[in-house]
Write a structure and sequence with these properties.
The structure holds two protein chains of two kinds. By secondary structure, chain A is mostly beta strands. Chain A has no helices and eleven strands. In chain A, a hairpin with a 2-residue loop joins strand 7 and strand 8. Chain B has no helices and eleven strands. In chain B, the strands form two sheets. In chain B, strands 2, 4, 5, 9, 10 and 11 form a six-stranded mixed sheet that branches. The chains are: A mainly beta, B mainly beta.
Amino acid sequence: DTAVSQTPKYLVTQMGNDKSIKCEQNLGHDTMYWYKQDSKKFLKIMFSYNNKELIINETVPNRFSPKSPDKAHLNLHINSLELGDSAVYFCASSQLLSYDRNHYEQYFGPGTRLTVT
Amino acid sequence: RKEVEQDPGPFNVPEGATVAFNCTYSNSASQSFFWYRQDCRKEPKLLMSVYSSGNEDGRFTAQLNRASQYISLLIRDSKLSDSATYLCVVKISSGSARQLTFGSGTQLTVLP
């Protein structure tokens, strides 16, 4: 039933480790995103994929690597985790409505709360 | 200057009050505008789109002033369940990329 799901919901790990967060959407959308929300609640886009093709790649360290095996999945792999990576990571998806190109909604997953110690 | 700026609040209002949030955006190429709502420790969810002529959805009224690059959200007859963070969001499209830029949010607490 869940539209956009992420695993794990909570992730606590030590500095220097490598971790992955998985995201899946069952809405049939063509575009998926990763956002980072820091402790000040500022939500910032990291990556966007459209039909498995990377279309938005904001300035993030190259320790972050998204992977989209198909258009329903967008995973985020993080190498050499640092304290500053601690945040909530949200996956989202969207589909541009063909009849109204100025109206569309992004559906967010429940978030993954990453804590790096 | 941030691309989307909001008063962070917090706004603490009694039940039944009317409260208004403002937002300004810096990119004049912004095409579409939205208000999202984010409950504590939850994901953001679309509250309403904002249309040029202004629009209303029940107790919620959104307005857009493109000349001033200003968006507002008015909540009438506040309910306890309206307590949340309200995110002002603008959309810019470039090719196949449709990017939302979020404000940092305005926190609202409705008090009994």
